[in-house]
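To: structure subgroup
Subject: Chain for Friday's discussion

All,

I'm putting the inputs and outputs inline so they're searchable in the archive.
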Amino acid sequence: MDGLDSNNKNNLKLAIFKAVVWFDLFDYPLTAYEIWQYLPFKIPLAELIFFLKSGSSKESTKTVWAEKNGFYFLPGRDSLLSVRQDRYNQTDRKFKIALRVTACFRFLPFVRLVAVANLIGSHNLRQGSDIDLFIIASPKRLWLARFFCAGLAKVLNLRPNKKTKQDKICLSFYVSEDRLNLEDLRLDDNDFYFNHWLAGLIPIYDQGGVYEEFCQANAWLKAIFPNLIWPDNHPRRQKTARHLFSDSRFFDSWERIAHAWQLKILPAALKELANQDSRVIVNNEVIKLYLVDRRAELKDKFLEKLKIYESA
């Protein structure tokens, strides 16, 4: 099975190393399957596993990754195995909170899909972290969806505050169902964080076919991660009574009121950055409220670590 020539072996080795380095930034060791998902070219999973287990991957004057119990990580970072296990348990607990909140959101007529976001690595949430939810709203009902979701989370005392954000619900990213392609929200073509963020979304409520439509709208990601398993087709969805209710023109004026009121109470720091770049976006199709955006910083750290390989 080891039919790779030396050039392809080097390309594969570099691609594996890049995946290991990227996830090391988030203290996350990878399985062979996870490495395979984030390779930039198509390759059978069995061929990758064979390569990882054979001497081919170790043919170098310097070992650029280590392996233990089926996990791959940078040399000297074997402590990440226990970190991954601990975060798995923390994430499992946080997912139960997210599911309970979403069980309430699903009764709101303007919510089409809810997904857990900011998972760079499956089940990789810290104990003190909040729970980021990504929400797709009915067309022309974005601000009403945010009003009811944020309001309900506030009533349930689940909004992050100055004292704590642990186990709180962060609701900072909404898009309209008629604006599903997020490609233009990247910093550039090599926005590593956004690409992995998008690939890592985990839907926990789908009104029916929305996630499939979302994946199709963002099919450009398959060119970056061609081994990523995403739905390729989506069913033709028929409008239900619930759709007709949320689409009623009766809500048009309420949408305008919700929009105006929420803009009025938006914190000054967010207002100042609104629509200046991709950190804070405020319009009728996208609400993205991230005052702190570490994407550029993480990209620089990633590229700096890659120099280890180039000098090996």
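Points worth raising on Friday:
The chain has twelve helices and eight strands.
The domain at 6-78 is CATH 1.10.10 (Arc Repressor Mutant, subunit A).

D.
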